Amino acid sequence: MLAKVFPIKLKDGMQAKAEAVVREFAPKGPAVEEGTLSFRVYRDSTQPDYLLFVEHFADQAAYDAHTSSAAYRELIAGEFAGLIVEFVEIDHELLVAH
């Protein structure tokens, strides 16, 4: 399993717009992708204009399929990308789960 974590700083005042794009994307992309095991996006009530993406994929091929989908290109690489200041991509491998 491949886990991806993305802390994302949004441009000032873009929280609501970014959340709307993510809500539109989830059913069109991750929800219908066989290898996307989970797609979760968190907000921090103490930190405005910030989102944390936590995603789990069956493997690298599943992640590659996710990021090459039409929905991803339109909504995440397209609309969402224009709303961010910066993001960090952190890969994790599952060690323990229960």
Question: What report would you give on this structure?
Answer:
The chain is built from 3 helices and 5 strands; from the N terminus they run βαββααββ. It has helices spanning 15-28, 60-67, 70-79, and strands spanning 2-10, 36-43, 50-57, 84-87, 90-93. The chain is globular. The protein starts with a strand and ends in a 5-residue tail after the last strand. InterPro entries: ABM_dom, Dimeric_a/b-barrel. It comes from Phytohabitans flavus.
Question: How many strands appear in the DSSP assignment?
Answer: 5
Number of domains: 1
What is the subunit organization of this protein?
single chain
Are there runs of 5+ residues with pLDDT below 50, and where? none
Query: Which structural category do the helix and sheet elements fall into?
Result: alpha+beta
Work out the radius of gyration. 13 Å
The fraction of residues assigned to DSSP E strands is 25-35%
- CATH architecture term: 2-Layer Sandwich
CATH topology term: Alpha-Beta Plaits
**Run of helices and strands:** EHEEHHEE
Helix segment tally:
3
Q: What summary fits the major beta sheet?
A: 5 strands, antiparallel
Percent helix, as a range, is 25-40%
Write the layout of secondary structure elements.
Layout: E1 2-10, H1 15-28, E2 36-43, E3 50-57, H2 60-67, H3 70-79, E4 84-87, E5 90-93
Antiparallel strand pairs: 1-3, 1-4, 1-5, 2-3
Organism: Phytohabitans flavus
Domain ABM: 2-94
Protein name: ABM domain-containing protein
